[in-house]
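Subgroup meeting minutes
Present: P.N., E.W., G.H.
Scribe: E.W.

1. P.N. recapped why we're keeping a running log of single-chain structure predictions: easier to compare across weeks, and new members can see raw inputs and outputs side by side.
2. G.H. added today's entry (97 aa).
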Amino acid sequence: MRKYEAMFIFLPQLEEDKLDKEIKAVEKIIKDKGEGEIQVENLGKRTFAYKVEKQNEGFYVNYTFDAPPSAILKIKEDLKHRGNILRYVLFLKEKEK
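Output recorded in log:
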């Protein structure tokens, strides 16, 4: 098992309840493919240094989770269909010991 971190930027025009649903939907995708606990940190709305898909700002949410390397491709495949995500990045935080 490896520890991963993922940073998501959601659309800025999402209302609070819709944003919460999106955060939980992404958490469920990660939980279904990964293992163990997921830590979710909503960092709030931030302004970009430059426009991203014609947007000046977005909601930043950070996820930390454990998953086997084979699960990452499955997670990315499921995330393709989420229309309220502007950008995301997944990276290896810590190799298995």
